[in-house]
Amino acid sequence: MSKLTKKTASKGLRTVMASGSHHEIGKALGRQCKDQALRMQKHFRDGVRRNPNMDMPKVMTHARKVLPAVRDYYPEFVEEVEGYSEGTGIPFIELVAMVCDFPGQGKKGCTDIAVSSDWTREDCVFAAHNEDVEPHNIYDIALVKVRPKDEPGFVAVSYGGILPTVGMNAAGISLTGNAVVPNDTRPGIPKMIAPRKVLREKDIVSAIRASMPEGRGTSFNNIVCDSNGEIYSMEGSATTFDALYATDGYLVHTNHSLTPRMWRFEENMHTRFCSIVRYNRALKLLRKDLGNIDVPTIKRLLSDHVGHPESICRHEDTSLLEEEKCVSICSAVFDLTNKVAWICHGNPCQGSYERCDL
């Protein structure tokens, strides 16, 4: 039977746990995060209404078209969503629609760094991330600890408890990443599903394969690391990808493509100035401390305000419309060597990082 427990973190980040079959896990997470799921459903429907090229019948039709590909790619995730539907009361096909890729679904940022044990004070492998999205999303995330009966257990920050955005599993695999804006989006496997499948894998080859499924509709830049210090930034679009390897033992990525193969898939580089500044600033700060990097070093980097409000630690720009605003709603540092995570709810410059042992 599935375990079902819930507590509230001292700084406001909900923590939920589930184990058992994938259906049991989905149902347990749905029960614990039902209020988040209903709020996400409302934002989804509001977004559909605002888009003149979309309506609910269209998005449901789209969801039904991509569902067979999702089942082929990761049937266990479909079982989780079916259980989540039972736990939340939201129709299954609408949940599928909520994770599908549509134009104009929101503005995302995010800054990521990863560094091997060659450059850290205590010979640890680190992967770290600031989650930059619309301000209202701060209420929609939960720290989840999941133990499937047939996959490695993992800890992740997940939207509504069901959609991980960053995480680390018991096999020493981590998933972080950031949004890119490719120009070749098509109907296919939604990009939100690949991060969940990465967290089921036990080796780096399987993990990077899971991060770039054939038949995807579009893609995040998925950063996949393991406890051996193998670090890959998988820059993807719908139709191709490139693998950026941390040849020097460290890597930084923000929200624009770094590999020449992917440059022609950038929708509009004139929207990437903030990303360019955050990338170069993070790289400069990381290189400054190579050989002495530890958790406090990474926290300072993720709290940097050069370029404020569009800095590494993103803050609200009050001159923008509500749907255009972007802030850091959480920050995460994963120690893959010791299987420990530090999670901050809200801006890292203001919040405190809570330790979470896998």
Topology diagram in text:
Layout: E1 4-8, E2 14-20, H1 22-32, H2 34-50, H3 56-73, H4 75-88, H5 92-98, E3 111-115, E4 126-133, E5 141-148, E6 154-159, E7 163-169, E8 173-178, H6 193-198, H7 204-211, E9 221-226, E10 231-236, E11 241-245, E12 250-253, H8 260-263, H9 273-288, H10 295-302, E13 327-335, E14 340-345, E15 353-357
Parallel strand pairs: 2-5
Antiparallel strand pairs: 1-2, 3-4, 3-12, 4-13, 5-6, 6-7, 7-8, 8-9, 9-10, 10-11, 13-14, 14-15
Helix pairs in contact: 1-4, 3-4, 3-5
Describe the structure.
The protein is an alpha+beta fold and 358 residues long. It folds into 2 domains: 20-98, no CATH class; 111-141 and 153-357, Penicillin V Acylase, Chain A (4-Layer Sandwich). The chain is 30% helix and 26% strand. It contains 10 helices and 15 strands. The protein has helices at residues 22-32, 34-50, 56-73, 75-88, 92-98, 193-198, 204-211, 260-263, 273-288, 295-302, and strands at residues 4-8, 14-20, 111-115, 126-133, 141-148, 154-159, 163-169, 173-178, 221-226, 231-236, 241-245, 250-253, 327-335, 340-345, 353-357. The chain has a 9-stranded mixed beta sheet with strand order 1-2-5-6-7-8-9-10-11. A 6-stranded antiparallel beta sheet has the order 12-3-4-13-14-15, with helices on one face. Strand 9 and strand 10 (231-236) form a beta hairpin. Helix 3 (56-73) crosses helix 4.
